[in-house]
Amino acid sequence: MANIVYIGASLDGFIADKNNRIDWLHEIPNPAGLDLGFADFMARIDAIIMGRNTFETIQGFDCEWPYKKPVFVLSNTLKTVPKSIADKVSLVRGELTDIVEQLAQLGYQNLYIDGGKTIQSFLQQDLIDELIITTIPILLGGGVPLFTELNAPLKFKHVNAIRYLDYVVKNHYIRER
Ligand SMILES: NC(=O)c1ccc[n+]([C@@H]2O[C@H](COP(=O)([O-])OP(=O)(O)OC[C@H]3O[C@@H](n4cnc5c(N)ncnc54)[C@H](OP(=O)(O)O)[C@@H]3O)[C@@H](O)[C@H]2O)c1
């Protein structure tokens, strides 16, 4: 059972720029269209928990719903999801520990945790087991931060680093408890 962050971040630690845009994530030259290990990661997880803002960003993309695994959207304001994705997306709210426990009982053990505020909320409660962070060599100077303040430091062990395409590094950290 693991709660795993898999995310792209700028050198200065932002996951979206000042205009809430993520184009810069996809601007590195990638002629062969490598997925940088995303499909292998998705094969490992059972379900996705994402914040409402990330959900709305994905809905704004000009493409079909991209995930085959079940998606649980954290929101205290949304009441419904569009009919076209109602079999793939559910809304959840409440205590994160309860949500994780309920999903585990449904058989969703390994969770992909996505969205800035969402990741921060999980970290504040020490509910993240792995961080897989792909660093993009750009300084955005502001935007949506990946991390924020914590009540206490959280230590991680570094288990792997992969350099891709002469531009990015994917670092994999595991929580040391
Ligand atoms: N670089 C990347 O790889 C990457 C990946 C994912 C997202 N992004 C970007 O990050 C931005 C979205 O991140 P974000 O920080 O704005 O927010 P987020 O985590 O996607 O969404 C936050 C929202 O989730 C809801 N929520 C409900 N319970 C929550 C809880 N316990 N903890 C946290 N959120 C809870 C709240 O919505 P309600 O008001 O409805 O309650 C809250 O405003 C977008 O620009 C997206 O494109 C980038």
TrEMBL record:
<dbReference type="InterPro" id="IPR024072">
    <property type="entry name" value="DHFR-like_dom_sf"/>
</dbReference>
<feature type="domain" description="Bacterial bifunctional deaminase-reductase C-terminal">
    <location>
        <begin position="5"/>
        <end position="161"/>
    </location>
</feature>
<dbReference type="InterPro" id="IPR002734">
    <property type="entry name" value="RibDG_C"/>
</dbReference>
<dbReference type="Pfam" id="PF01872">
    <property type="entry name" value="RibD_C"/>
</dbReference>
<dbReference type="GO" id="GO:0008703">
    <property type="term" value="F:5-amino-6-(5-phosphoribosylamino)uracil reductase activity"/>
</dbReference>
<dbReference type="GO" id="GO:0016301">
    <property type="term" value="F:kinase activity"/>
</dbReference>
<dbReference type="GO" id="GO:0009231">
    <property type="term" value="P:riboflavin biosynthetic process"/>
</dbReference>
<keyword id="KW-0808">Transferase</keyword>
<dbReference type="InterPro" id="IPR050765">
    <property type="entry name" value="Riboflavin_Biosynth_HTPR"/>
</dbReference>
<protein>
    <submittedName>
        <fullName>Diacylglycerol kinase</fullName>
    </submittedName>
</protein>
<keyword id="KW-0418">Kinase</keyword>
